[in-house]
Amino acid sequence: MDSSDLAYDVFSRQCPSRSTLEHVTGRWGALTLGALHDGTFRFNELRRRVDGVSEKMLSQTLHALERDGLVLRDAQPTNPPRVDYQLTALGREIAERLLALIRCVEGRQDEVLQARERYDATRGGL
Fold first, then answer.
1. Using CA atoms, how far apart are residues 45 and 113, in angstroms rounded to an integer?
2. What is the separation, in whole angstroms, between the first and last Cα of the chain?
3. 82 phi and psi, to 5 degrees?
4. Per-residue pLDDT for the chain (126 aa), expressed as one digit of tens each?
5. What is the pTM of this model?
């Protein structure tokens, strides 16, 4: 049986879609995809845009997203070398869906903060 015969089920431990979901929805993956939705970035520009990500984590995240076909790495043979990152068509589609979720979370954050306050007041916080 080859992979085209599989019924993908992210809830199954063996399903390859699970690792892709992890790459996309992990903190740095989601933020990197969201940032790249704004355009093409060089590594350090992207690192500044995704505030708080280490160089190592951004590099690992970009490699995983590139391997999954979501990010395109364009290395230009200049001196010094120039490497640009941008979304593929698939990456853009996924980033748009992520951005809708991000906007929802941002737009409802007051409610989340109030819920946390209520929870902490009755249970003593985390």
1. 31
2. 47
3. -120, 125
4. 455 555 789 998 989 999 999 999 999 999 999 999 999 999 999 999 999 999 999 999 999 999 999 999 999 988 888 999 999 999 999 999 999 999 999 999 999 999 999 999 998 766
5. 0.86
